[in-house]
Amino acid sequence: MPDLHHGHAGELVAPFFMNALESYGVEKRLGYVTADNASANDILCRAIEESLSSRHGIDWNARQNRLRCLGHVLNIAVQAFLFCRNEEAFGMATQRILNSGSVIRDAVVGEGGFASHGPLNKVYRLAVAVRNLALHKEFKDLAGKVLKLPGETRWNAWYTLLADAIECRDAIARMIDRHVQLEAFKRSRDEWQTLQDASGFLQPFYQVTMLSQGDQATFDSFQVQIDFLIKHYEDSERRFTSKAALLAAFNKYYELSDDVPVHAAAVLLHPGYRKAYMDKVWKRCWIKPGIERAKKLFETRYRQSAMKSPASDAVEQNGAQTAWDFHRNRLLQSLTSQSQDGFTAFINATPTKIAGSPIEWWSQPDQKAAYPQLWQMAIDCLSAVPMSAASESSFSGMRRTITWSRSQLGGQVIEEGECLKDWQCRGYACQIDDGYDSDSSSNEDSLAPVEGWI
């Protein structure tokens, strides 16, 4: 874990990223890079593209392989709903974020969105008020929990605050009745209904966020879940004026996906979706370009790298040919090429219901034999990570390790500590003798299993 003494700009991080790839010997196997929407990550990917080309002769297209974290897209979209009154306010806030690096909540100009006024704002101010030492225990005894204050960067905590307030509605009413200083936070029946409606509107966004951050999530979920959330937006009642800001945020990043063929490819190569999904969900004008992008990816990256067909070899070996031989060999070569393609045949076939992961389905020997050129593309596309939750979690974990009293810890010590924590979570550390003594000669045997993991 290197120390970045000069900042986190993309061009400064790229050399360390390349050193990590080369130290593990995986520079030729780099696939998709999933990161948040910061422009520094765009610069990082372009620098990686240049380094791979100049140092290793590897053609890695940054524009096609740079993926945007679904969690960050959802975070920006829902923050736009919470803190931007309309699409214009979202545009102004976005520009301020680009200029200052702040979050939407702090970048809003003028009157904000749903969380900035009305019932949810009352809930927030009540949560602040009952953190008072005199009221905290009383509210916890009444409600069985406390109302947690949301942070500045993640929207999920606002949904949690909203859901907890609805659950603790009776306890909140009793607290307000007991304490006159809380009278300003009293809500009418209509305001409670507004909170219920907002909770129902935000719940799918929360669920999608939770589903997409696990190890089992495959990249097809990115497109399918975005499509679902847009339909959910369109089907919901038009009672929140700030919903337009949410859609503006979605559209901003939806358009960027046009440059990345893996979005369409992952859906087309999911055995349970294929082209039938697009026919049912997508607009007609989107389908053909999406398929063409995925087909081009297949043609340029996977089909060209396949071995030549037996028919082609026969043509070269025979040398001089009669007209019949030439016609026959060309026909066999064409038919073999079509059968090895498989892309069009697969996406147009009837979707297959599968019990497990689509990656497991494609990893079966039968699928590899049936689609000798297509299976590797399918695994590459589906195994792309829809969210950068794992790296974000590691970053947050390290921040908890580096307390103010440990601010002088170096990169190597932090790396070793995080490694040990990971071993402990996976159960590896349990294999080390609890009675470990640094002066004991028997420690060499007890650490033998660990050396195999390094």
Automatic annotation (TrEMBL):
Pfam families: Dimer_Tnp_hAT. Signal peptide: none annotated. It is found in: Nucleus. PANTHER family: ZINC FINGER BED DOMAIN-CONTAINING PROTEIN 39, ZINC FINGER BED DOMAIN-CONTAINING PROTEIN 4. GO terms for molecular function: protein dimerization activity; zinc ion binding. Residues 357-423 form the HAT C-terminal dimerisation domain. The lineage of its organism: Eukaryota, Fungi, Dikarya, Ascomycota, Pezizomycotina. GO terms for cellular component: nucleus. Keywords: Metal-binding, Nucleus, Zinc, Zinc-finger. InterPro entries: HATC_C_dom, RNaseH-like_sf, ZnF_BED_domain_contain. It comes from Cladosporium halotolerans. SUPFAM superfamilies: Ribonuclease H-like. This is HAT C-terminal dimerisation domain-containing protein.
